[in-house]
């Protein structure tokens, strides 16, 4: 592993551009649950175990229609948790690294927690591929509008695991509102905010390619259960002849020619950037 850490340092030293790709494991060192497997999820939400619901069953838009109090208990609890959570030091280390490369960096994340924004990353350098809990939309949806969840408070009866009315509603039609997050079996998600982010990301990648910049990809805590981040990292590494540095305590295997760091997010980030920022 020491050899891989030195290799990663060299790659980062020589890089002109940095892509930070983050999965749920990125938030673990900030104290956030990563919902790994049913048991991990049930540890974070014992009530879900009682109801016999796995993460992919509860993270489903149907509950906003069938049982909005349950839906908002789950998402309201997460909204409150993410608002209270402070990003760990690794976020700031990576931001500094990106700034040292003339701000030639971008973030691609499947996390909906808004932790990169909280750590001071510019909004125009982030793709939240599954949306954000800090933005709302109509459950119907009655329009394409997406609005900020700032000022929305969700109180929860922890015993019953029910949100206490009034629940967030659509500011246009008055129906129940929901987070602008891509859920499982979700045909109601409004993707326009994420599509704008993806458009900016594509422009950045085109610039990196046309200038012939040396791109390094630092991927943190991206698992295989929902492999969006892993597949994106590998595809871009392949297309732009970039080096992928994969930091993951469990799913650390990499395609040939790339670098595996079998550590947790914060420790991995510290080790590969030591002496560089």
What is the global morphology?
globular
How far the N terminus sits from the C terminus, by CA atoms, comes to 21 Å
How many helices in DSSP terms?
11
What is the helix/strand order?
HEHHHHHHEHEEEEEEHEHEEH
Please tell me how large the radius of gyration is. Answer: 19 Å
Placed side by side, the strands forming the largest sheet appear as 3-2-1-9-10-11
| The CATH C-level class name of the domain at 2-32 and 88-151 and 178-273 | Alpha Beta
Question: How much of the sequence is in beta strands?
Answer: 15-25%
Structural class, by secondary structure, is: alpha/beta
Task: Label the CATH architecture of the domain at 2-32 and 88-151 and 178-273.
Answer: 3-Layer(aba) Sandwich
Please state the average pLDDT score: 96
Query: How much helicity do the residues have?
Result: 25-40%
Which fold does the CATH topology of the domain at 2-32 and 88-151 and 178-273 refer to? Rossmann fold
CATH superfamily of the domain at 2-32 and 88-151 and 178-273: TPP-binding domain
């Amino acid at each position: 592993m020491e050899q891989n850490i030195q290799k990663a340092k060299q790659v980062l030293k020589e890089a002109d551009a940095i892509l930070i790709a983050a999965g749920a494991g990125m938030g673990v060192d900030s104290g956030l649950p990563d919902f790994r497997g049913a048991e991990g999820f049930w540890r974070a939400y014992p009530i879900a175990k009682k109801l016999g619901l796995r993460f992919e069953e509860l993270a489903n838009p149907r509950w906003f229609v069938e049982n909005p109090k349950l839906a908002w208990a789950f998402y309201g609890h997460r909204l409150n948790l993410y608002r209270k959570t402070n990003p760990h030091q690794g976020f700031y280390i990576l931001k500094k690294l990106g700034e040292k490369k003339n701000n030639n960096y971008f973030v691609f994340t499947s996390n909906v927690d808004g932790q990169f924004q909280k750590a001071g990353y510019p909004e125009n350098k982030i793709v939240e591929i599954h949306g954000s809990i800090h933005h709302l939309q109509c459950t119907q949806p009655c329009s394409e509008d997406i609005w900020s969840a700032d000022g929305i408070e969700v109180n929860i009866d922890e015993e019953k695991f029910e949100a206490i009315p009034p629940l967030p509603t659509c500011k246009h039609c008055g129906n129940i509102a929901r987070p602008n997050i891509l859920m499982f079996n979700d045909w109601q998600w409004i993707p326009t905010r994420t599509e704008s982010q993806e458009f900016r990301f594509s422009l950045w990648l085109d610039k990196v390619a046309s200038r012939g910049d040396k791109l390094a990809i630092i991927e943190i805590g991206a698992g295989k259960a929902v492999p969006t981040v892993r597949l994106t990292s590998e595809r871009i590494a392949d297309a732009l002849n970039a080096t992928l540095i994969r930091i993951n305590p469990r799913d650390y295997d990499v395609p040939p020619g790339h670098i595996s760091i079998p550590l947790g997010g914060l420790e991995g980030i510290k080790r590969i950037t030591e002496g560089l920022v």
